[in-house]
Each structure stands twice: as structure tokens, then as C-alpha cells.
Amino acid sequence: LGNAVAAAGTQSLYISNNGQAFEYTTATSATVVHAYRDIQIPAGTTTDIAFSYDWRNQGQSNADYLRVWIVPVAFQPVVGTPITTGGGRIQLGGNHQLNNTWTNALYIYPGATFAGQTIRLVFEWTNNTVTGEQSPAAVDNVEVKALTCPAPVNLSATTGINNTIVLSWTPVGTETQWELVIQNTGGGSPGANPVTSVIV
Between 1 and 23, where is the model more confident? Predict the structure, then answer.
């Protein structure tokens, strides 16, 4: 944790070869390191849980990458040993690499899966001994929260026929209905002074 790089604010979690700089030493020695945080999920949780974070990492293709895991609290990561699937271990996404700009990752899981448990959220960095591209992995804005009303993603609007607009989106929860609020330009906050409101 330091202040060499950040997506927001002044600090982030990042790989460093000297404890300060946002860089790693390539072609030296193979490395697998972990950082983790234990999170208690309340008993009786039934709403979806969102795991989100911002990440960046260039690295070398298929060699220098960031992985993110949910593991049981009894699982202890071992320096030099990559985490594998199985035994209650869940990988969030794939290998985070080849992207040197901050990117948000969002994963949704049913709350009942973890209700009443303490889980361990692990960030794992791996690099090999061949070569590599700066920068290494960095993580910021880590958030775990229950979703009472998850926002859809991949919103789009296209022009239809006869002065119509076709709206589309991808739900991220189990919802099956949405409320669309139509308002004039400059209507203030969403839902303020609506022209009409419909359920779809």
C-alpha cells in the first residue's frame, strides 16, 4: 500500500520492487505474492453481493498477471504458490493483464452463497523469469456490498422507426422489472420533474 499510483485519492495497493516505486524487476526470479482481507458476510444475507475494484497491469502476456480470488477464511495463501480452483475457492474473472489503464471489474454473486461466513478476498500477483512490460499490477477502490437495487449495465439507446428510441441493457441481479423515467433536458436529478414514468 503506497502513494506511487492511484485510480482515485492518493493511495492504492501495487507491486513494487523497492517498496515505493510502481515497477517490478523483470527477468530476475519467478514470483507469486498475495495480499488479502477477511470480510464477514452477515447471516441471513439474501440479496446479491457485488465485488468490485479498479485494476491496471501491463505485464507479459500469459506470464505476468493479477488474479483475484474469494477463498474460505481457513485458506492461507503461500508465497510462491499460485492459488488453484476447488475447495471453495472462486476466481473473479481471468488473468488481469495487458491493460495499463485503470479498469473497473464488477462481479455479482448470490448473497446466500456466503451468508454467515467470513470470506477472504485475495489479490495474487504472478511474474516469470523471462521478460515483462511495465507497469505491474495495481488495485484501488475495492468494495464489497450487498445490492438492494442493482443498476443494470451495458445501457444503449438507438434510433428506431417513426420517431422511436430502442433502449437496451443487461441486468446484473435477479430483477425482472424496471422503471423508466422520461424527463425533459435539464430536468435535474434522475426522476425529477418527469414527463412520464413506466414499468417494463
Answer: 23
Q: Helix (H, G, I), strand (E, B), or coil: what is residue 82?
A: coil
Name the burial class of residue 74, with classes exposed (0-12), middle (13-18) and buried (19+) by CB atoms within 10 angstroms of its CB: exposed
Angle at the Cα of 114 (from 109 to 118), degrees rounded to 5? 130
The C-alpha atoms of residue 194 and residue 115 are separated, in whole angstroms, by 39
- How distant, in Å, are the alpha carbons of 27, 34, 90, 158 from that of 31? 11, 10, 21, 48
CB 104 within 8 A of CB 18: no
Structure confidence at residue 131 as a pLDDT band (50, 70, 90):
confident
Give pTM, 2 decimals: 0.78
128 and 64 in contact (C-beta within 8 Å)? Answer: yes
User: Measured between alpha carbons, how far is 52 from 54 in angstroms, rounded to an integer?
Assistant: 7
Angle at 76 between CA 74 and CA 77, to 5 degrees: 150
Section 111-118 average pLDDT? 94
Of 121, 153, 154, whose CA–CA distance to 139 is shortest? 121
Higher pLDDT, 117 or 166: 117
**Span 144-163, average pLDDT:** 84
141: left (phi over 0), alpha (psi -120 to 50) or beta: left
| Phi–psi pair at 78, nearest 5 degrees | -115, 125
